[in-house]
Structure formats: structure tokens, C-alpha cells
Amino acid sequence: MSLLAEKGIISYITTNKFFNTGYGEKVRKQLSSQHINIILNFEQVEVFEDVLVSSVIFNVSKKNKMKKKIVTLLLVAAMTGTMVVGCGSKADDKTADTKTEQTDDKKDTEEKKELADDEYQYVSAADTVIADGVHVLDVREWENYSKGRVANSEWCPIFPLEDDSLVDEMTTYAKDHLNDGKDIYVICNSGKRGAEKATAVLRDAGIEPTSIYTVEGGAEALGKENGALTTDRTEENIDWKYVSGKDAVDKVGDKDVQFLDVRDDDTYKAGHLKGTLQCSLKEFDTPEAQTEMYNLAKDKMDKDEPVYILCYSGNKCAKTAISVMKDAGFDTDSLFIIENGAKDGDVSAAFVTE
């Protein structure tokens, strides 16, 4: 738009996926600030042969004389699949009926085009970072994943590629967590072999092929995007569960509840709840601490029993533990943060030093 003259006009024909995806938010905002002359949305109409996405034509002027409210209404209408003509423009009946010219029989039988086994869809690293409402699936080995991951990504490794047991694990994970119709963005090391194998596994698990995208360039490309990869897990979109200090103390000694203390070694030795496991997450955002937590969860903890987690104040260390345990296969609904951590009076009063 910056290249247009003050009264210039620009038209595009492009995919309409920016209407209702997280990565299209910037485009929608840009359009809403311009003068929209016309939007033609060809939802489920094959404009171009062998193209898998629906198309849209939009025509905008740089100079905006329309009220913001009207522009917003135009975008909302377009996103619901309506053809909109703005500001004195007229469209003949034939154009207005573009979307409805399919017969009912064709609508009933029309299905998404199939992708060939060696055909893949791609999404850029930049769009992956701002994506919303999608599954970001990281398939790298833990060693690489723990050094930097996309916030709120899900981890299900396919590396090492020769390990066939990982295929079974990914198949189960896909059926349990990914078969909800949302797009899936697959991250591997470089956007090649790992993503290709993961895509094949997801397809075999029954995931719609047109919902699966490879992140172009993989983690290598994401590493070049400012802030794309992080080791901070404290702001994850997890529904954090809490238990009061009193209720936690009442469960000490209960064989059906596991206690985990994530304070540092010296603080733990100075006083802790009896019978607790311990893993220091004082340096909660380091790969080393998170790896130690992951190994403890995998080797010494039971996924089927609830876990009460004690940290200094019931915040960052405990949340990091939950995020890591989620990667280890634990259900976050069974992981509870002890409110106020070691600061809670009931908790500190129950400390032992043995």
C-alpha cells in the first residue's frame, strides 16, 4: 500500500485463508484501515485447476473515506463467505451468483482434493510464530527441542528417524490430541526429512492431509526470527491447577498422591515435606534444569497419579515443571501447584529435614 499514489487503487487475487487464521491478522488489520471497493470471495469454487485453497479478489484504495465501522462490517461479511461490493460499485447477477452456482449434488459430494504421498504444504517461520488456533508440533529430539521451542508448541519426537517405536507413539498422540480439525504446523530441524516422515505418520493416523503444514526451514529458520524460540515455559496456555497448602499437607503420606519439590538442593535440605521427590528448577529457563526434570518425570514418576508441586512461591518453577511434565506425557489436569509454595504457613510448619 505504501507504493500507491494518494488516490491509487490496488487489486489482488489470492488465497482467502487470511480471513480466519491467526497468521492473517496483520493482513486483516491492514485492509480494515483502507478504503475497500470490492471483495469477491470464491469459497469452495474452483477458480484455478488443481489449486487446493479457495480464492478471493479484493480491490482497495489508499485513501479511506469510509467509516471504520463500515470497513469492519465489510471484512466480517467477507469472512463469512459473502460477496461484498462497496462504495457505488455494481456487480451483475452472474458475478453475484459465483458462489452459489454449484448444484446441491456437487456440494454434497465435493471433497477436499487429495495430496500425493510426496506432496507437502508449507508455512513460513514468521507465520508460525504468530499463528493462533493451530497445533504447532515439534518433532525434534529432546536435546534440540529443549534448547529453544516455539511457545505453546507440542512435542512428539520422530527423531531418531530409524526408531520405529516413535511412529507408534506419534500415531497414538495424533489420534488422541490432533484429530480436531485444526491445522498442524510441523517443526523439525531443517524442514525436510523429519517433517516428511511426521507428515506421513499423521496422514496414516487419519489426519486430513490438507491440514498438515511443514514449517519452511524448520528450527533453523525459526532461530532467525526474533524471539521465535524460547526456553521460558511460564506463560504457556495451560489451565494451571492449584491446591491449598492445608489440603496438600493433609495428603502427605498418601500413597495415591506424588509430591514434587522443585526448589534448589540447599533449600530443600533445610526443610521439605516428607516423602517428596526433588528436582531443582531454580534456573527454570535453562535446558539443563528442564532436562533433569524431564528425566525425573519419565524415570521415577507415575503418569496415572496426581502430583502436588512445591516451589518457592507457587509460580514460575512449578509452572515450568508442569510444562515439562506435559512433554513427558502427563495430563496437566492431574498436576497441581501448591498455592503460595513454601511461603504457606501450613506447608512450612510441616517441613522435615530428614
Characterize this entry briefly:
This protein has 354 residues and is of the alpha/beta class. The protein has helices spanning 25-32, 68-79, 93-96, 104-109, 125-130, 142-145, 165-178, 193-204, 218-222, 245-250, 265-270, 287-300, 316-327, 345-349, and strands at residues 9-15, 35-42, 55-61, 84-85, 122-123, 135-138, 154-155, 184-187, 212-215, 241-243, 258-261, 277-278, 307-310, 335-338. The N and C termini lie far apart (69 Å).
What structural keywords apply?
five-stranded parallel β-sheet; alpha/beta; single chain; 354 residues; 32% helix
Topology:
Blueprint: E1 9-15, H1 25-32, E2 35-42, E3 55-61, H2 68-79, E4 84-85, H3 93-96, H4 104-109, E5 122-123, H5 125-130, E6 135-138, H6 142-145, E7 154-155, H7 165-178, E8 184-187, H8 193-204, E9 212-215, H9 218-222, E10 241-243, H10 245-250, E11 258-261, H11 265-270, E12 277-278, H12 287-300, E13 307-310, H13 316-327, E14 335-338, H14 345-349
Parallel strand pairs: 5-9, 6-7, 6-8, 8-9, 10-14, 11-12, 11-13, 13-14
Antiparallel strand pairs: 1-3, 2-3, 2-4
Verbal overview:
This protein has 354 residues and is of the alpha/beta class. It is built from 14 helices and 14 strands. The strands form three sheets. The chain has a five-stranded parallel beta sheet. The protein has a five-stranded parallel beta sheet with strand order 10-14-13-11-12. Helix 11 (265-270) links the parallel strand 11 (258-261) and strand 12 (277-278). Helix 7 (165-178) crosses helix 8. The longest helix is centred in the middle third of the chain and has 14 residues, at 165-178. It starts with 8 loop residues before the first strand and ends in a 5-residue tail after the last helix. Mean pLDDT is 85; it is low at 64-77 and 80-112.
